């Protein structure tokens, strides 16, 4: 599978040297290097210096958007499912200075406060077969788009203008749809749920959505327009149902859920509108979602889509801790997109390979993306140790994780339905 993906991506390059280097680069991203950059990846590949890898990222002639299209086709062939969910979210990379493309002081969800950082809108794909990052768009604040000298220094193309994060998300979604990726739903947080134009565009594509909104979001009802939190406060006790939003690190994620049909929100796209409300069983904290589907669906289906949104956070964690998504040292537009594209390709390979891993016997959890990355490097890319030693360590880790899983589920069973 790895060689198939590398051959597909390699067809984007006209010469054998960059084809070899892109394979070595992705192999380096998959390697357990303490830091991922062109120097360490070149050393892992056996090069005598970092120049070749730096050329690949900064100066060689290739189309990163074309490579992401190849990755999308690879994902569609191996993880594609009619009930697939497109997930949009932003990731921030903390940076120093002012010269790195897109950087300024702005709110970063990664840091939880205003910091000097880059922000990028990511598109992820989740299906019953697995989930992976798929596409990306760097957010350029107006302080960049309105500064020609700064743009020129960072190599920002003249065709790139200012776009809000929901506008970037819409472009990513429409590119995925145009590429034939099978999907039925879109999910995102408040940054995207609060934009009515994005929601209208999704309805136009007949894509159902579950988009988070603020408690102050105004909802049309037969009695007028009300805030979401006011509607929640008036719900009777029987309106709430306890349902799981999916499997978490410590068992099933149970919340109390309610939904309100909104027939007065119907527009020219027809379909069905709801306000979905989630209540934390411990704190009572509420979360709100605007939902739409071209056909009638049950509450359980909306809850499942809302729960799917957290898989993009898992993808961020896997790519940052294992693949160096945020470890790039590049200031320019082209280099940033190329680094991120190759990280996405590496993650898509791991997700697809994990999806075909056979079920584990009793006493072991299924192989995870992180575990497969370790095995693939040790057994295929760099078999420096005996295979039996590598597999023994894999079994040890998975047995320990299975014992922890059983313990979490047993503790949860004492209090959960």
TrEMBL record:
Descriptive protein name: SRSO17 transposase
Residue stretches making up the Transposase IS701-like DDE domain: 12-217
Transmembrane region(s): none
Highest rank taxon of the organism: Bacteria
UniProt-listed Pfam families: DDE_5 (PF13546)
UniProt-listed NCBIfam families: transpos_IS701 (NF033540)
């Amino acid at each position: 599978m790895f060689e198939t993906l590398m051959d597909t991506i390699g067809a984007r390059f006209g010469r054998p040297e960059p084809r070899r280097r892109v394979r070595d680069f992705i192999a380096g991203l998959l390697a357990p290097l303490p830091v991922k950059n062109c120097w360490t990846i070149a050393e892992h590949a056996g090069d005598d210096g970092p120049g070749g890898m730096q050329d690949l990222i900064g100066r060689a002639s290739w189309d990163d958007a074309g490579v992401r299209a190849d990755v999308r086709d690879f994902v569609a062939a191996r993880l594609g499912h009619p009930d697939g969910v497109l997930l949009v979210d932003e990731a921030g990379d903390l940076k120093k200075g002012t010269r790195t493309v897109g950087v300024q002081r702005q709110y970063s969800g990664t840091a939880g406060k205003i910091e000097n950082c880059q922000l990028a809108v990511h598109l992820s794909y989740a299906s019953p077969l697995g989930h992976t990052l798929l596409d990306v768009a760097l957010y350029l604040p107006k302080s960049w788009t309105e500064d020609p000298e700064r743009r020129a220094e960072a190599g920002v193309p003249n065709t790139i203008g200012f776009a809000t994060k929901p506008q970037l998300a819409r472009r990513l979604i429409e590119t995925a749809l145009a590429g034939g990726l099978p999907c039925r739903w879109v999910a995102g947080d408040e940054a995207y749920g609060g934009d009515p134009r994005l929601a209208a565009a999704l309805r136009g594509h007949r894509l159902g959505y579950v988009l988070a909104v603020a408690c102050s979001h105004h909802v049309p009802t037969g009695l007028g327009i009300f805030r979401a939190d006011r509607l929640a406060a008036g719900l009777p006790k029987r309106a709430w149902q306890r349902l799981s939003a999916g499997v978490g690190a410590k068992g099933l994620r149970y919340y109390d859920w309610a939904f309100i049909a909104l027939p007065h929100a119907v527009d020219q796209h027809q379909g069905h509108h709801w306000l979905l409300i989630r209540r934390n069983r411990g704190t009572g904290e509420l979360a709100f979602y605007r939902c739409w589907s071209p056909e009638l669906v049950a509450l359980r289906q909306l809850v499942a889509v809302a729960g799917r949104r957290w898989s993009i956070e898992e993808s961020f964690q896997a790519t940052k801790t294992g693949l160096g998504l945020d470890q790039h040292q590049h200031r320019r537009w082209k280099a940033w997109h190329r680094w991120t594209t190759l990280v996405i390709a590496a993650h898509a390979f791991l997700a697809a390979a994990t999806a075909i891993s056979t079920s584990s016997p009793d006493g072991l959890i299924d192989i995870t993306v992180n575990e497969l990355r370790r095995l693939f490097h040790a057994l295929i890319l760099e078999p420096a140790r005996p295979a039996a030693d590598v597999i023994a360590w894999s079994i040890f880790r998975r047995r320990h994780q299975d014992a922890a899983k059983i313990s979490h589920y047993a503790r949860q069973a004492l209090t959960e339905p």
